[in-house]
Each structure stands twice: as structure tokens, then as C-alpha cells.
């Protein structure tokens, strides 16, 4: 009987020892994983202040908001889409948000850092006409080959119409995006070669003063 009790005691000690080792190992793994998690840290605010058109105080406010939505310090495309959809609940902003994300993701690494966000926002809100048009061209040039094709422009226009939803007034016709593209190319494609270069784009927008019609970037802060 005493032998049975002793054996039971030994087994309990072994079990407790094993549990203790397992917990220690789990805690160690969690610590390692937390240490390995990449948390993007922004460049010094002084540097961003020099590069952007925001004051240090404005950057601090922007950073607090950015960190609140994105604690890791970077935004992936799915999170970007979720945030952007809040501004256009009446429509489907998924496709347009995809194009917009690619425009903000200047180094094309699949994420938007605080620096990417600030520099894009700086241009959209306070950039010169030239800077805004360069940014707009980059948005419309989906494959980034230096030309805007009718197919690319049609994809963007459809995405914008989807984002605005079906409840617009007056009600838009089905072929409205394509008509918009045809109008765009008639004004922009100077040499009629079927594509619009950045020079044609900028020259036409500045010359005809149609920035608010064909070239304006629809975004929630406008």
C-alpha cells in the first residue's frame, strides 16, 4: 500500500514537472514570437516634417490616429479596404480601394507604412497642381508602364461608379463609365495612339482646366 502511494506521488511529481516544463516552453515561444514580430517604427517626425507639407503637431495627430487603426505601424490591403469602406457604405469600394492602396504603396511591398500614408496625404491635400496630377496619373496607370490605356481608365471608372453606389441622383446609365473614358481620351490622347502619356495628361489638365472633372481624385478627405 505504501509502495502504491509512493508510486502515485512520483507520478504526480513527474506530471507537475512536465506541466511546468511545457508552460515554460510555451511562454518562451510566445516571447520569441513577440520579439520576432516586426513592428514598423516611423522615421523621425522632423524628417517627415521636412519631406511633407504637415507641421510636427499635425504629424503627431495623424500618427496617433494611424496607430489607433493599425497598431503594428503598417496597413495591409485588407485592412485598408475595411477602413475605406466606412467612407462609402452605400456602395462597393473594394476595387477602388485596391487601386488606391497600390498608389499609396509606393515601394510595392504589399503594405502602407505611416511614411507612405503621410506622403500620399500630403500631396492629395496640400500638393501643387503638378504633384496632384502626377499622383493621379500613377493611380490611373494600373500596371505602372508609363501609359494610361482605355482598359485601365475603364477599370478605374467602373470602380468609382461601384463605390458611389446605385443610389446616385440622377441615376447613372450602365454605359456611363465607358462614356466617361471616351470623353477622357478625346481630350487627353493628343496624338491619337490609343494611350495617354503623363505629358499629355498634365498638359491637357492644365490647359483645359478640367482638374475638377476628369482628373480629381475621389477620396474621403475631399
UniProtKB/TrEMBL annotation:
Localization (cell):
Cell membrane; Cytoplasm; Peroxisome
Q: Which GO terms describe its molecular function?
A: calcium ion binding; potassium channel activity; potassium channel regulator activity
**What keywords are annotated for this sequence in UniProt?**
Calcium, Cell membrane, Cytoplasm, Ion channel, Ion transport, Membrane, Metal-binding, Peroxisome, Phosphoprotein, Potassium, Potassium channel, Potassium transport, Repeat, Transport, Voltage-gated channel
Its record classes its membrane topology as: Peripheral membrane protein
The question of whether Calcium is a record keyword is answered with yes
Biological process terms from the Gene Ontology for this record are: regulation of potassium ion transmembrane transport
Q: Which residues form the EF-hand domain?
A: 92-127, 128-163, 176-211
Give me the Gene Ontology terms describing cellular component.
peroxisome; voltage-gated potassium channel complex
**CDD domains (UniProt xref):** EFh
- Family that this chain belongs to: Belongs to the recoverin family.
| Name the record gives this protein | Kv channel-interacting protein 4
Name its species.
Answer: Vombatus ursinus (Common wombat)
